[in-house]
Design goal:
- The complex is a heterotrimer of chains A (144), B (663) and C (321).
- By secondary structure, chain A is an alpha/beta fold.
- In chain A, 38% of the residues lie in helices and 19% in strands.
- Chain A contains four helices and six strands; from the N terminus they run βββαβαβαβα.
- In chain A, helix 3 links the parallel strand 5 and strand 6.
- Chain A starts with a strand and ends in a 12-residue tail after the last helix.
- In chain A, 71% of the residues are buried.
- The model of chain A has no long low-confidence stretch (mean pLDDT 91).
- By secondary structure, chain B is α/β, with parallel strands linked by helices.
- Chain B folds into five domains: 124 residues, Rossmann fold (3-Layer(aba) Sandwich), CATH 3.40.50; 177 residues, FAD/NAD(P)-binding domain; 58 residues, no CATH class; 166 residues, FAD/NAD(P)-binding domain; 68 residues, Alpha-Beta Plaits.
- Chain B is built from 18 helices and 34 strands.
- In chain B, the strands form twelve sheets. Chain B has a five-stranded parallel sheet with strand order 10-7-6-18-29, with helices on both faces.
- The longest helix of chain B is centred in the N-terminal third of the chain and has 20 residues.
- In chain C, strand 1 and strand 2 form a beta hairpin.
- Chain C folds into three domains: 123 residues; 37 residues, no CATH class; 145 residues, no CATH class.
- The chains are: A alpha/beta (144), B alpha/beta (663), C alpha/beta (321).
- Chains in contact: A-B, A-C, B-C.
- At the A-C interface, helix 2, helix 3 and strand 6 of A face helix 8, helix 10 and helix 12 of C.
């Protein structure tokens, strides 16, 4: 994303409704700052995150994608984040295998009480993506 | 054609101080489909809500986006507002521009830009929203309690007292469970039978409670509010309606060599028996494995002595099908088998007993009439060794359980205390890893055993027990003294770990209730929903959920009953409309979705489909029960064809949000 | 010709109403799957040789839903695919009669043509391919022209059959099929990126990989699904082809038996099987050995979990920078 002529990373954060979205709300209630690059999409559970959405985000210009869910064992739906954990582990490994920077994708478990953690995670993630720069790794040769 | 209204809230200065609300409204007003975009100091105020209502009516809005505080705060409020104006409440989306924008960003320009993007995402999503209607399903006002121990009895009594019918299904011939076999209870030392049997009688006499003893659940269909359960009533060869429980047959039966299960095989009884004196129902039953008449067709003594003609050798199992609104699992526990613990000589010497066997040996209704005698020679044991944690907290060797069985420390202190009280000349040793006594009056109780009753507690495990010249040579270790004491004991009591009753596993499958790796039922939430199973309408009571003592079991039984009452007191259940929904045209019928569903909401049906070549073909397709689905979405990702989608959070909606954010 | 005779026997005895096998394709080195409805038809055009590389499993989805019993000849690889499809309720097992055929590997037609320039006809004789070429007869050792998947064959065991022609083989735990994956993992992220960008940028999106893949047997593919919004007639971003192949590999993860058909049919020679093998290898190392199609009961890793599974932060696609 270009802001005033300078590149700014676009970060999509998928947050589960029960823990992480509430945790992000708490970040706000506590007035803890994190960069505006982060845009949150609410999903019912981390297991709702389809890899299609992550690739779609990258395809449309996201520079980093992060999934936040309840801590393992605390899922509102009991098992959702366990499935999400396997899916994301395999998907991230595959993206890394294809040479797409491992640091562009992340999963963090953030409970409804961890407002401070949410802010810390987002600050760190935005810093990391800013260092990596614009996401160019997903382009087709022929489009250059 | 979409007609979307955007309402930007100032939230006083909470939003407006950091976000240029007028600019947000102006920019979003130019988005395709948006016919109205405005800002207002307090959208959630009466006048703010009136404004939204009026706008919906006047502008004939098809969707509403509110840029305000978190949907967790006011989504429900605004859904009602929208509904009042005649629009489906699910045609509303909230852009969280307070908690996740104005409160976390300082730069006005940045925050305004982000608010616009969040607004765009909400517009993109609401454009794809479909009107959703929360379904309703009726509630059958009857509960089923599976298991008739103290947990099941208490749950049933509490539900019945609230005026609902309850059936208790118990696989044994009587209710009462493990508690009926106990002698005294800690930490008060009151007699188990004295406090349990009145409750059994209460249950039997309660007009709302129907006890189905000697029965098992065979099949479960349906879902919360209307489960259909098939119950097998095992043949007891005695007509339950005729038997008066006089017990004459149990005295005359010539087959005397039947190990008595109530006394854990420490004595024998007849082939026809009443489990114990206070059994409920007090009706005899014949053990077909021992009855001469049933095995060879020759005998018939019981039939001859029965004055009411209750004996029926031709009785068959029967199946009953009943409907229930709620099911409570109360299947309880049992001590683990000690087969693999050869070093403790259990099975080699009759004087090595489990704690539950000791309960019977000390019980007035037990095989020794309450006098503590060694099973081998019926003499008074003078030296007794207790071994703690036999199979508890030991996973490594594959023989035991990884968890703490919780009750052993306390019942051992109880046993030691009772023995020292009754037989002061007996020396009592307890080998333990550590003593765990968190509970009201528990630690005081344990300290009394040590300080007042002089029980010898030794920190360390027992390595080996060798039967030798009528004694049991116990070789242990005393970690504090750094010694290897050898004790010549007369009686050894093993605190065997407890495990879920084996019937729980198959029951969990029938109920599609989940279990942990130890076969204890899993709670819907370990802290906040401890008596509910993740499967809607299935509740948990007692030790089937985890090891617990009697007070905890009774407390949980009451809690489960309260949940059941809450469910049964409703006429209909309103379902969450944001549920998974399969597109049958695209479904492969591969069962992937079913395997990840934590609620068992997905089933399959063979349906006929018109194929492109005008033939019809039978295809297996997924069906979601909206009353059971909780809307997590696990299935939607497991589905490779994208046939399974989630209403309210559809693939297309989420991708529209992604596109709006990344554009 | 044992296979052909069995096909004739099955049809003429009335045991089955159709036979799924192979017939001659456009070229002499090209055998193509075909359904035979009579013994005469089999007599006339049924062909079986090490050139019969095509996996017949996927055809059984449609064939097993038709009237009557269909017989199919299964090489070990194919049998895994069939069992996997039975597990997914895609093939109606009661409508198929499966004849297991041991396999010594299938031929890479391109390699064969390199070894026998001007190829006009080919027949097999005990592990040797006797080739008629414009320049006279040429004998080529079968082992010299095997497909990559056959060189690193994972199993010669036929896991599902009603009848076996010959002896059943065994799994080959010594297979080096993951060596190529490891090789890529040992590259730096930049090199990996360069490798895959080069490979995937050749994709012409002909969908041959998808059409041949037994696991890609969805009634409607997500990439054709207008309802989902993921369908694309023309690439909407510069990332479209990568997107397709990643999702395709993800969707078949835990279901892919590693039959290697995707790479066999790719006209652009993109080593697509490496994507699938990467997933298989990761699942094996992270969640325990699992072979899709080896049985009908086990839960695939993607539909299962352990409470102590590793965290996604531990996911590594290879050497880090």
């Amino acid at each position: 994303m270009q802001v005033n002529g300078a590149w700014q990373p676009t970060i999509v954060a998928f947050c589960c409704n029960w823990c992480s979205y509430a945790g992000a709300d708490l970040t706000g209630t506590n007035r803890l700052a994190y960069p505006a690059n982060v845009k949150i999409i609410r999903i019912p559970c981390s297991c709702r995150l389809n890899p299609l959405f992550i690739l779609r985000a990258f395809g449309r210009g996201a520079d980093g994608v992060i999934l936040c869910g309840c801590h393992p064992g605390d899922c509102h739906y009991t098992t959702g984040n366990y499935y999400a954990r396997r899916r994301m582990t395999l998907l991230f490994s595959m993206l890394d295998f294809l040479g797409i920077e491992r640091e562009r994708t992340r999963v963090e478990w953030v409970s409804a009480a961890e407002g401070a953690k949410f802010a810390a995670v987002m600050n760190d993630f935005v810093r990391q993506i800013t260092v990596l720069g614009e996401n160019k790794r997903l382009e087709d040769f022929r489009c250059k | 054609m979409q007609r979307i209204g955007v309402f930007v809230c100032h939230c006083g200065t909470n939003i407006a101080a950091t976000v240029d609300v007028a600019q947000v409204a102006e920019t979003l007003g130019k988005e395709p489909g948006v016919v109205l975009a405005t800002d207002y100091p307090y959208m959630c105020s009466q006048s703010g809500q009136d404004m939204i209502e009026n706008a919906i009516r006047e502008q004939k809005l098809t969707g509403v986006v509110i840029c305000s505080c978190s949907p967790r705060m006011h989504e429900a409020t605004f859904r009602k507002t929208v509904a009042r104006a005649g629009l489906n409440p699910y045609l509303l989306e909230i852009a969280n521009v307070r908690e996740q924008c104005s409160w976390v960003h300082k730069d006005r320009e940045e925050a305004t830009q982000k608010a616009i993007i969040l607004g765009r995402a909400a517009i993109a999503k609401v454009t794809l929203n479909a009107p959703l209607v929360a379904g309703e399903s009726p509630v059958v006002k009857r509960a089923l309690v599976i298991g008739g121990g103290i947990a099941g009895i208490q749950t049933a009594l509490d539900i019945a007292d609230a005026g609902f019918e309850v059936d208790i299904v118990e696989k044994e011939a009587t209710i009462g469970g493990k508690m009926a076999q106990l002698d005294k209870t800690f930490p008060t030392l009151d007699c188990a039978a004295c406090i349990l049997t009145p409750k059994m009688v209460d249950a039997a006499q309660h007009e709302k409670i129907n006890i189905l003893s000697y029965s098992e659940v065979e099949a479960v269909g349906g879902f919360v509010g209307s489960f259909r359960v098939k119950i097998r009533r095992k043949a007891r060869y005695v007509d339950e309606t005729k038997c008066t429980g006089c017990g004459l047959c149990t005295e005359k039966c010539p087959q005397k060599a039947v190990p008595n299960p109530f006394n854990l095989g420490l004595d024998t009884r007849r082939a026809i028996a009443i489990p114990f004196a206070q059994a409920v129902p007090k009706v005899a039953y014949i053990d077909p494995n021992y009855c001469t008449m049933l095995k060879t067709g020759k005998c018939g003594v019981c039939s001859k002595v029965c004055t009411v003609g209750a004996i029926d050798y031709k009785q068959q199992d029967t199946l009953e099908e009943r409907e229930y609104g709620a099911i409570v699992a109360a299947t309880g526990y049992r001590p683990i088998s000690l087969e693999k613990y050869g070093e403790y000589a259990y099975g080699q010497s009759p004087d090595v007993v489990t704690s539950l066997e000791l309960e019977r040996l000390m019980n007035a209704a037990g095989p020794t009439g309450g006098t503590l005698l060694r099973p081998s020679d019926r003499t008074h044991p003078k030296t007794i060794v207790f071994v703690q944690c036999v199979g508890s907290r030991c996973e490594e060797d594959g023989r035991g359980k990884p968890y703490c069985s919780k009750i052993c420390c306390m019942y051992t202190a109880k046993h030691a205390m009772l023995i020292r009280e009754k037989y002061p000349d007996t020396e009592v040793y307890v080998f333990y890893i550590d003593v765990r006594t968190p509970g009201k009056n528990f630690d005081e109780f344990y300290r009394r055993a040590v300080e007042e009753y002089g029980v010898h507690y030794i920190t360390g495990q027992v390595g080996k027990i060798v039967p030798e010249n009528g004694k049991l040579l116990v070789q242990g270790s005393d970690l504090l003294a750094g010694m290897q004491p050898k004790i010549a004991a007369d009686l050894v009591v093993l605190a065997a770990a407890i495990e879920p009753d084996p019937s729980a596993r198959s029951l969990a499958t029938l109920l599609t209730a989940s279990m942990d790796t130890n076969d204890f039922f899993t709670e819907a939430h370990p802290k906040l929903r401890p008596v509910e199973s993740p499967t809607a309408g299935v509740f948990l009571s007692g030790a089937c959920q985890g090891p617990k003592d009697i007070p905890e079991t009774v407390a949980q039984a009451g809690a489960a009953a309260a949940k059941v009452i809450g469910l049964l007191s409703r006429d209909h259940i309103v379902c969450n409309p944001c549920v998974a929904t399969p597109n049958e045209q695209m479904c492969n019928g591969c069962s992937s979705c079913e395997k990840v569903c934590p609620y068992g909401a997905i089933t399959y049906a063979d349906k006929e489909f018109r194929m492109p070549d005008r033939t019809t073909a039978l295809r297996r397709v997924a069906q979601v029960n909206p009353a059971v689905c909780q809307g997590c979405g696990a299935c939607t990702v497991a589905c490779p064809s994208g046939a399974m989608d989630l209403l309210g959070f559809s693939n297309k909606q989420i991708m529209a949000e992604v596109d709006a954010i990344c554009r | 010709m044992q296979v052909k005779e069995k096909a004739i026997e099955l049809l003429s005895s009335g045991k089955v109403s159709r036979v799924l096998g192979w017939k001659q394709g456009e070229f002499c080195y090209d055998l193509t799957p075909a359904v035979f409805e009579s013994a005469e038809e089999v007599e006339r055009s049924f062909v079986f040789s090490p050139l019969a590389g095509a996996n017949l499993a996927k055809y059984l989805i449609a064939e097993s839903r038709k009237e009557g019993v269909v017989a199919a000849f299964l090489k070990p690889c194919d049998s895994y695919s069939v069992l996997q499809l039975c597990k997914e309720h895609r093939i109606r097992r009661e409508n198929v009669y499966l004849v297991g055929v041991p396999c010594e590997g299938t031929v890479d037609p391109d390699l064969l043509r390199e070894n026998a320039k001007g190829l006009t006809a080919v027949r097999e004789a005990g592990g040797t391919l006797v080739c008629d070429t414009l320049y006279g007869e040429k004998r080529v050792d079968l082992s010299a022209v095997l497909l990559e998947r056959c060189k690193v064959c994972k199993s010669k065991k036929i896991v599902v059959f009603d009848e076996l022609l010959g002896e059943n083989g065994e799994e080959n735990p010594q297979s080096t099929r993951f060596a190529a994956v490891e090789e890529i993992e040992n590259l730096t992220p930049e090199e990996r990126y360069a490798f895959w960008q080069k490979e995937l940028s050749r994709c012409i999106r002909c969908n041959a990989c998808r059409n041949v893949c037994p696991a890609c047997s969805c009634e409607t593919c997500v990439f054709d699904n207008a309802k989902l919004g993921t369908d694309n007639k023309a690439p909407a971003s510069r990332f479209e082809e990568q997107y397709f192949h990643i999702i395709r590999a993800f969707h078949v993860a835990g279901r892919c038996t590693d039959c290697g058909e995707c790479s066999r049919v790719c006209p652009q020679k993109i080593p697509l099987h490496l994507l699938n093998r990467k997933f298989i290898r990761d699942m094996n190392t992270l969640y325990g050995q699992y072979q899709a199609g080896a049985d009908e009961e086990s839960l695939p890793p993607m539909l299962d979990f352990r409470m102590d599974d590793c965290e996604p932060s531990a996911a590594r696609g290879g050497k880090q920078a």
